[in-house]
Amino acid sequence: MKLKIKITWEIILLILIILVFVISSILSPYFLDIVNLLDNTTNFMEKGLISLAMAYIIISGNIDISVASNMGMTSAFMGVLHRAGTNIWICVLIGLLIATLGGFLNGYLIVRFRLPAIAITLGTYALYRGIAYILLQDTAVGIESESFMYLGQGYIGNTPIPFSLVVYIIFAFIFGFILHKTTLGRYIYATGNNEQACKFSGIPVEKIKIILFTLIGFMSGLGTIFLTSRLSSIRPDIGSGLELEVIATVVLGGVSILGGSGNMIGVVLSLFLLGYLTYSLNLLNIPSQVITIILGLLLVSTILISNFIEQRRKLVKS
After folding, report:
1. Is residue 157 assigned to a domain?
2. Cα separation, 47 vs 259, whole angstroms
3. Among the residues of the chain, which ranges form H helices?
4. What is the DSSP string of 40-103?
């Protein structure tokens, strides 16, 4: 009896992670240090948190390119308040509220004016970053609160496990459960597959859009808090360019850029693949420009392969 193993995108990602580990450990003796491997995860946890919500957005057939600008705006509001003497934890709460409202505004405008998500979020991409620079200009606000810095720099007890990694894992489980085990998750997939059919069948498509964009706003705020905590600094340019990395993480994770397919396991694996690939290339002193080119080629290849697989599936069905 032959054992048949179905090669899924998640298995391919897992194989790629193993290859990165094997090749990197051969090229650099420092790569497999468990403390360094765990510590390095702090460099991409904020991206991971936002990627979870971005997966929902893209699976539903939408996209949000304003997430990084929302982070900058959130950071700027926190900076202005903290510079005025406001307690850092009050700044955190207000920052989360600002980011969530930024996401809600995106969703509301998309639904209210029936415009594509990319059109609205392109506008708020510029709007939110502009607000950030008006509030803080080019200045940075330092943070000295040890309890706040623990979020992005702390470890669980005496272990080398970063606190931010534990937070990410918890959120990944929650997002995965909602996507794969709840009615909302089924609606997200259905909306991405055929939005018009969903409207005719009574699925509250517009309400779902507002919920998803509000959610990614909240996760952008959470990412901002962990990033500012890690950097011990609040700046208006924080997260600049992160939206492309987040989208790349989601698409590499097997989520179709056209919507309607993908899963949370792939997104999580993609995050660690990109994170450790970048870490390995940095250890080998590869210039950042070359790293960007490599990651860009990887993303383009992923989209082409994903499109090829989708076309093959359609041919098989027909």
Report:
1. yes
2. 20
3. 9-27, 34-40, 45-59, 67-83, 88-113, 117-136, 146-153, 163-181, 183-193, 195-200, 205-231, 242-252, 264-283, 288-317
4. HGGGTHHHHHHHHHHHHHHHTT-----HHHHHHHHHHHHHHHHHTT--HHHHHHHHHHHHHHHH
Rounded CA separation 133/155 (Å): 33
Residue 3 lies in a domain: no
136: helix, strand or coil = helix
- Structural element, H or E, at residue 142: strand 141-142
- Please check whether residue 2 lies inside any domain of the structure: no
Token reading at 35: 């403390």
Determine the structural domain holding residue 290 and report its residue range: 9-317
- Residue 66 amino acid letter: S
Residue 4 lies in a domain: no
User: Looking at the 3D structure of the chain, how many domains does it have?
Assistant: 1
**Per-block mean pLDDT, blocks of 10 residues, the chain (318 long):** 67 93 94 96 98 99 98 98 97 98 99 97 98 95 95 97 98 98 98 96 97 99 98 95 94 93 97 96 92 85 76 72
242, 50 contact by CB (below 8 A): yes
CATH code of the domain in which 216 resides: 1.10.3470
